[in-house]
Design goal:
3 copies of one chain form a homotrimer. By secondary structure, the first copy, chain A, is α+β, with helices and mostly antiparallel strands. Chain A is 16% helix and 45% strand. In chain A, a hairpin with a 4-residue loop joins strand 17 and strand 18.
Chain lengths: 252, 252, 252
């Protein structure tokens, strides 16, 4: 059982960071197709599904399917010394240790026993009636603007408009994006769900400004936020549970 | 009673920041001429007089004179999302709420009841014998240099020289600016007053490096520091009470 | 007894900072050759030998040998207001006060009585069998990479290779530099010593990326790290005691 790969340092950093926004330790599945992981945050409010096809690597060899466990923060710390353009060589035998060569340094990282890491959560099968595609930059700015007035944000659609609102105790903000400001919108009904800005802020940091971001929404249903990394060879999908308005909650 | 205006985001940020250095909540007077406010800091040591003529706005309409109250920090927080070149549209009916449109976002901000905000302080009528005009950059650097050695700074004049000194327990600093280094100086007598660097540091952050700054001084009298913002259409004047040397104070 | 000198602000900042990484107060010796100091850090683990020849100054006059004592942090604070290209004029009579003119400001700094400052430590006479010369950038990166995994670093040589390793509880890193990656290496035997990364991190901040850095090493002996500043007119030498592995220490 052995794994060997070469990848651009910037691409690998982007991949790791998109997951580490939500979780500290992951099980990474490695097979002939590439690498992938599914993790839930400790509070079970959000999930991140990550895939990177072998085409996203400069070299990629694995002799049989394997699962390795590691601490994302330790890995990020080590990668922080590498420059974006550097090349990373990874190698693991038997899954106890990961050897990383980068920028002239030769690291040996102890891997975690995958059985000690949280079980892969089951990804719920959701039928979400609204699909919105927009520039990453728009979602990032909307999250930042909403944070200024509230801890929660409402995503809704109305007649092919995507509407983002946040309402605080004193102030509120609203952004309406019509078809001309979106890349695409398809809705079979008007939808509306409320989400925690804490989670959305973490997630939106991984969305590149220029990237196409897909959002799938329902009413009082989780949101799926999906975008590509590493030149279309990688895919990140976040799933975030809605905040259900209780009687005691002021309606945003 | 309604107010509507358009203004460049950078100009509006500069205006708000020049006041928020000293106070958190203000009463803003709006009339056919433009907007203005007069506020004192909570300790009553400093005042800020602010005016922005309607010519500093791209559009400006008010049907009758009105006074609105607001929290400067909340406004700054919201403006932090805007880019310098963005355009801000403001609108208020009846003075309960301010609507701000900027960068595609539509904010509603609750206004404060002006009667709950500190009364406008009376601006003292001072006859200050020395008038100095100099580049903003010089006053900013003098304040920074003085902070390195003391908590107080002395502004004085002697024979058409403007002299800035600060004396700490161990170290001291002195800067002498003669007519060739000043834009202008007019004095009818030599003057000397001591001021708190805490206040001067806050004030000097609003002075643009290249702007003409006017200083009016007396002996053991307040200083007036005056400069234009928004291309000569706005004016900020700070007034700072002197620190009177007591018997027990080491003479700086 | 008087001293007068002019020097570029950036050069003087670099000089002061190379010493202040390790000590707060120094005795500076001034004579016809230039200025120099020898200091040990408070824990007596590291020493810094500093020399700047009079050729590194634009002007330099001293009538008789003198020693002045000063607080490096106060001096750095004052220099922080100067721009890199500014010129500093220093002047001291009798060694009680240092006058510094820079960027239009005239500072008077109280000097410390040299007799109150730590005695100059005796520099040990060491015969270190390995001499390595390499680019400053390589040593800086090696220190940063090692800090990610451990608190200690091992410098060793083997057959004309310079090897840097750091071993943490879980992870390790190794960098091997052969003759082609070094400017020079001369060894009469293989050597190996362990050093604290806390000290090395402070020291390496003063090493310019492009500068030639000389390292002299033995086995369980102090390391000497030596580099020039101010265009070859100044020299900084750090000496750092090794950490001797006790029985209870895991061998790195």
């Amino acid at each position: 059982m052995s794994f060997e790969a070469k990848i651009n340092a910037g691409s690998f950093k982007d991949s790791i960071e998109s997951i580490s926004r939500l979780v500290d330790e992951i099980k990474l599945n490695i097979n002939q197709e590439g690498i992938s992981s599914v993790s839930a945050d400790p509070a079970n409010v959000a999930m991140v599904m990550f895939k990177l096809k072998k085409e996203g690597f400069e070299e990629f060899h694995v002799d049989e399917e394997m699962t390795i466990g590691f601490d994302l923060n330790r890995l990020e710390d080590i990668l922080s010394v590498a420059s974006m353009g550097d090349e990373i060589e990874m190698q693991s035998e038997e899954g106890n240790q990961l050897s990383i060569k980068v920028s002239g340094f030769d690291y040996k990282i102890s891997l975690l026993d995958p059985s000690t890491i949280q079980q892969e959560p089951k990804v719920p099968d959701l039928d979400l009636p609204a699909r919105i595609v927009l520039e990453g930059n728009k979602i990032r700015k909307a999250v930042r603007a909403s944070e200024k007035v509230s801890d929660y944000l409402v995503f809704s659609t109305k007649d092919d408009k995507f509407i983002i609102t946040a309402e605080g105790d004193n102030d509120s903000v609203k952004m309406e994006l019509d078809e001309s400001q979106l890349i695409n919108i398809e809705t079979s009904e008007d939808v509306r769900s409320i989400f925690s800005l804490d989670y959305l802020a973490d997630m939106s940091k991984s969305i590149k400004k220029a990237s196409e971001t897909k959002i799938r929404l329902g009413t009082d249903y989780p949101v799926k936020i999906n975008f590509n990394i590493v030149d279309e060879n990688g895919e990140v999908e976040y799933l975030l549970a809605p905040r259900i308005e209780s009687e005691s909650t002021t309606s945003p």
